[in-house]
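Entry:
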Amino acid sequence: MRRAIVPFVLVVALSLGIGCAQPGSIVSLEARETLSRAAVDGATAGRFRNDGSPVPSATTSVVSYVLRFETRALDGSERQAIAHLFVPETTDDGGTLLAFAPGSTGLVDACAPSVDYTTGGGLDTYGAYGLAYAGQGIATVVPNYLGFFDPRRRQPYFVADAEATVVLDALRAAAAALAGLDAARTPEHAFVAGFSQGGHAAFATADRAADFAPDVPLAGVLGFGPSGEVDVAMRAFTYVAPWILVAYDETYPDRIDPAALLVEPYASRLAEDADRHCIAGVQAYYPGTPEALFEPTLAASLRAGTLVETHPELARMIAENDTGIVAHGLPVIILQGVDDPVAPFEDQTRFVRRLCELGLSVRYPNYLRTRHETRYIGFEEALGWMRARSEGQSAPSDCEQVPPS
């Protein structure tokens, strides 16, 4: 049965005293616009065409919201976060909710995925991508990471606990919003997905869901070129490694000296550069190889996989933020470009092997002549995979086809 939702505007700051705010509770929900099917297609079709992928046609109009919700910092203190929420007006997937975690954008507010939309501007690339799923009938929430929209803090980049916390709280808040719009929309199945850094966040969420948010009904994990392993990101996509070092120094004080790990002129400008460059800027500013950015021992160690021997404290921090380490039992799909330079195919296959060794069912579609961006070429496959899980079908697995190490 197809259900209709009557759009409404709720901009109500909840009366929450200190110590009373619950993670995932709604602070405010603001309806921004209702997009017709044609408007959804207009906002999303070009992105699919630019990737050379089939263009999906929206099956429903969508109401877009800005959702502000309660979450927690790593020290347990209360924080607020912001997300896009896209709600299909009519749907056959009323019991399904998707959280999509963005890829790397930067560490400061100016780089936040939703910075334009929250100030009255247009949709960013992640918002438009979330809209594409909602246009197919799946309610979708796209959270900004902890630290964004807080001028006193930077994003705790590639910190698994922080990523998982904000994604799970976004799912809680989105579920509450959907139930408030229509009690029949209370999610029965929640999925977590992510692109690049967002893949790290998605797998961090799956690893921690049972402990952090057992009330969230997670049904599966989707990774689009996911950067599940921090050391691989530092080696293969060196541009973002300084952000990782800044974030780890702030999250784990006095354990490393990040400037000592870089060569000049980057070492002495590390904090300043972290505040002034977003993702396009770091790719133009920093060199693209470990040898041109890191001190020689670290560069060689990243290539050789010997961080434990040469940089044990950094190796421990990376291990603390590893993902794909828990036998959580959730089915997984990883959509991978064979020519991906950011999350290289050989490294991704090793990550898949780790998941398989944990006993997880892992679907692993590979796309020839495709680099890092698999969100669009893999859209229909991801959509069908989620729907099959929501319908109770057994999760397919490619683990028997993954070559041994």
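The chain has 14 helices and ten strands.
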